[in-house]
Amino acid sequence: xxxxxxxxxxxxxxxxxxxxxxxxxxxxxxxxxxxxxxxxxxxxxxxxxxxxxxxxxxxxxxxxxxxxxxxxxxxxxxxxxxxxxxxxxxxxxxxxxxxxxxxxxxxxxxxxxxxxxxxxxxxxxxxxxxxxxxxxxxxxxxxxxxxxxxxxxxxxxxxxxxxxxxxxxxxxxxxxxxxxxxxxxxxxxxxxxxxxxxxxxxxxxxxxxxxxxxxxxxxxxxxxxxxxxxxxxxxxxxxxxxxxxxxxxxxxxxxxxxxxxx
Length: 262
Ligand code: ATP
Known about the structure:
- By secondary structure, the protein is of the alpha+beta class.
- It has 6 helices and 14 strands.
- The strands form 3 sheets. The chain has a 7-stranded mixed sheet, with helices on both faces.
- α3 (89-108) packs antiparallel against α5 and α3 packs across α6 (203-209).
- The mean pLDDT is 93.
- Adenosine-5'-triphosphate binds next to β4, β8 and β14.
């Protein structure tokens, strides 16, 4: 690891962190199977909102639909326990992706884009995956945990399990970055965006404007099969993608079920 890397610990993350509740409690594991699993367990035990689970290295991280997400040493794997009103659930994937884009820009100067629904890309290559897992009882959100995996300080080519279409911050910059700074900045940005939700903040608009997907010809795949093809025309406020098919009709694609291919 290079000179810029600070030690990750609960104390180094929470110390003078300028948030009201997000990241005021951090549970840090040097090595863990999955931060999302621990977040679920902690949430079910009644952990305070804003609790952060973070791992220095993650061995069995999850993507969507039981896909795996690898976080080798040098990466960032982090989950936050939230309990928003049920009407804000669709905004969580948007605000999480946006907070990643903002903090990568602030800390590293790198510009990134969002690929619908849950990837963050740099120069077309995946640098971060975003996941939201929630449990709702009636009208009450028991918990809604957001998770990110950022490829920070490692060479993607050193890990055959990571697709060659991925990149890392250190691959892009040819130097290491401070994971600590990125994490702290991310927590601040998540809270800022989260607190704008009740006032009808501009999360949706900024998210839409950060999408690389719009205007592109895409294939929608489910379980390896192409289910439809069309031009990604727009996104709805609930986060779904509106696809213009070749017969001229508009089809609504809901996140969570499908994979997009350019
Ligand atoms: P895709 O990213 O291929 O469009 P997806 O967004 O549906 O698919 P996710 O569930 O977000 O996929 O992420 C899981 C996939 O990401 C895995 O199938 C694997 O190919 C890939 N992957 C795993 N670890 C990493 C990593 N560290 N960086 C980039 N990609 C990874």
